[in-house]
Amino acid sequence: MDVTHLLESASLLVPEGIATENDITVRDVWDYLAHDEWQIALSLLEEFGNGHPLPLAFWEQLAEAAEQLRLERSATWCHWRCSEIRNGMIRADLTLRSATEARRKTPIAGHGVLRPMWDVGNLSPTGDTAVSIAGLWVEGTPSLEPGGRATVRLVPLTPSHWTHVTSGQRINMHEDRTVAGTAVVLEVHLPAAAMPTT
Question: Which of 24-33, 52-61, 149-158, 186-195 has the highest mean pLDDT?
Fold first, then answer.
């Protein structure tokens, strides 16, 4: 499918009547598509996903369009959002330990490259702490310095390890045996398959 069709298909998945923070609607996206302004249309469609849950197909189509347009950062972000839908997502306020307190001396890349271990309260069969891996995306900045603080998005590698995590819970980040940072959970979004039935 070409870029225009991908973006048109994605826009059809946005519920009618919703708008971005800047009052942009799907009609505005269609105007940009009519003038072959694909990059602007893609950026606007990404904004719809910031405030409204949209289906996996929406993000898959945006990811493919971004790849065809060679917009690496947008493609990475859209693939990340696909992972959030499949595996769930935890938003948290993370504070890294300073370079004098922890092993890390360099900034963390903010775009989902790092997959640290997290102590979310699970225990091993022997009663020891069992850590769980989650990818990390830093919101609003390309990197996070040692000692820095930012809102992060976590995508669990094994979603079932995270189903008991709740807002307000403190979790520790590890890159080795020592604590590299501490986060306070702000939001928990389980994958559809893990959501409790009513």
Answer: 149-158
Structure tokens at 48: 């719809």
The radius of gyration computed from the CA coordinates of the chain, to the nearest angstrom, equals 19
Q: What does DSSP assign to residue 16?
A: T
| Half-sphere exposure (Cβ direction) of 56: Cα atoms closer than 13 Å | 9
Cα separation, 95 vs 86, in Å, equals 27
| Digit-coded pLDDT (tens) for 30-74 | 999 999 999 999 999 999 988 788 999 999 999 999 999 999 999
Name the H helices within the chain.
3-12, 26-34, 38-51, 56-68, 72-87
pLDDT score of 50 = 81
Q: How far is CA 41 from the centre of its chain?
A: 21
For the purposes of burial, counting CB atoms within 10 Å of the CB of 106, is it exposed (0-12), middle (13-18) or buried (19 or more)? exposed
| Domains located in the chain, CATH noted | 3-86 (no CATH), 88-194 (2.40.30.10)
- Two tokens, residue 140: 């609003």
SS3 173: strand
Q: How far apart are CA 61 and CA 84, in angstroms?
A: 15
> Cβ(180)–Cβ(103) under 8 Å?
yes
